[in-house]
Amino acid sequence: MRALHLALRLLWMRSRGLFMASYAYMTEYRAELLLWALSMSLSFILMGVWFEASSRADVGITPENVVRYFFSVFLVRQLTVVWVVWDVEEQVRLGKLSSQLLLPIDPVWRHLMGHIAERFARLPFVVVLVALFFALYPAAFFVPSPSSVGLFVLLSLGAFLLRFIIQYTVAMGCFWLERASAIETLHVLLYMFASGAIAPLEAFPVEVREVLMLTPFPYMIWLPARALMGDVDVDVLWRGALVMSAWGGFFLVVNRVLWRRGLRRYSAMGA
Amino acid sequence: MSTSIPLAASSSRNGPSPIIEARGLGRTFQVPVKGDGFGGAVRHFFKRVTKDVVAVDDVSFTIDPGERVGFLGRNGAGKTTTLKMLSGLLLPTSGTVQVCGHVPFAKEHAFLRRIALVMGNKAQLMWDLPAKESLRLQASIFGLDDAVWQPQAKALTELLELGGLLDQPVRKLSLGERMKAELMVALLHRPEVLFLDEPTLGLDVNAQAAVRAFLKRYNEETGATILLTSHYMADITALCSRVLVIHDGRLIFDGDLKRLTSRFAPEKRIELELSGDVTPADVARATAAVAEDERCASFRHTGSEGRLVRFAVDPQALAPALQRLLAVLVPSDLSVTDPPIDDVIGRAISGDAPPATAETAP
Lengths: 271, 362
Hints:
The structure holds 2 protein chains of 2 kinds. By secondary structure, chain A is an all-alpha fold. In chain A, helix 1 crosses helix 7 (about 105-135) and helix 2 (about 30-40) crosses helix 7 (about 105-135). Chain A is built from 12 helices and no strands. The longest helix of chain A is centred in the last third of the chain and has 32 residues, at about 235-265. Chain A starts with a helix and ends in a 6-residue tail after the last helix. Chain B is α/β, with parallel strands linked by helices. Helix content of chain B is about 35%, strand content about 25%. A 6-stranded mixed beta sheet of chain B has the order 5-6-7-3-8-9, with helices on both faces. Chain B has a 4-stranded antiparallel beta sheet with strand order 11-12-10-13, covered by helices on one side. In chain B, strands 2-1-4 form a 3-stranded antiparallel beta sheet. At the A-B interface, helix 1 and helix 6 of A face strand 5 and helix 4 of B.
């Protein structure tokens, strides 16, 4: 019991320390945070395109839902953005990983808490952008139910963790390749196509949609976005939870295997 | 100064067994080989050719708790690679290593809590934040309570004379101040074994002296073991009585610094400053006078410059040589020194002295 208490206390101390340091670091980059938040504005451009298309023909989603959907996509992407592959690539290539390996904590925690702290630092900018959006398009304003918001937050957290573990696994390629971020470029292509970031999944043929629903991608954007709109079935939710857990577990195992093998290859050059 | 660093908690620190033990340690890297020019780049694109580079080869030594050991060798000799294997960053390709009773590469938390590696040319501090934020983070990662780490930080701040600087962003600190802050962060958890890779690299003379004095005091007050690489021989002579010399990945000397000097440079240097410029006649007179004593057969003139004239002689013949020298030359100043340690290392590496098996450390 005492050992558990000590372990939990250490976990709390480390999480708090990493969060506070990362948050302090992120707040040093105010201008960058605004630009990063703005870089997700592709959703608003696609919103215009799909609004126009849905107004002229039946694309499987109404114009009103197009607006709500892409607004939700914008928020999901703000909450689930991940860049760990570039950080790990730099650390491995330049030997900066060495200082992390000398600490009694797995380097993944530092990356994870850095991402979470960035979310909090980014939040004020996202709020401003949302307010600006509704000021420009008051017709798009909608108030989701508390349960929809709760589900959205939960699914976005799951989507973030899934995206993080997949990209962190891709990052393990750094131990074998000079630039593992090249794999990520390919991964992003699949992610943008299959997650619903470019087009709502309702616009895809049923057969394609069925196949995509077996991949992790729709659960990273489409499902949380639909949840915020209050338009998601319980069956889809359960299926989502199952698929996300399965992919998450798979990538976690692969990640740990690659990490251990990668460390054996790590040459600690440059440090 | 009344500040002292609390002793690190360890039950096995003062045990009779070595705290660092390397046996037949080796590390080989696979390095890509790329041809010159455009053709070389094209060939490299289609076919990768690599070669094996032996960075460390069959290195064995032990270090007892509390020792301060200098690790010497030229660039690329294998010093840093060895340190990285000892600290668990690199997996040895041959041999075994144990530090504090642990296999370093396993990176057990119990091991990582007992060691620190400070690399002089690499910042472990968060660049854009004040150093105190890095200290706070280090304390939380090592699970140190405020009541434990804050007095420790205060003591280190005073010893390293960093008062008032910890609130400034690291990027605003000078190189010397940053190095001191690096040391402070690395020592916050009171490591029993401290690996230092070029800790004074790029520092000015005063900062180098301050870091040396601090390390010596840390060792004396905590009994921590220190293994240090440096290009500045003053670091080694000020801190280490024992040295390991590595060349082309192989350990060529392990023993007392003075024995290294006597083996590879068994002579004393005599420098006289005369009242006027040195003439060839002065040198001839001095050489002839000393040569009359058969004990001074090793005596030789090594150079003259302005009013300075230099000789070298075997340490056993120093007294008679000086006696005869001063009988014919009247200097305004006189000094007797050991050869610069850089020369000694250079001779050890080039094998100017008769090779011998590695001496056992005292």
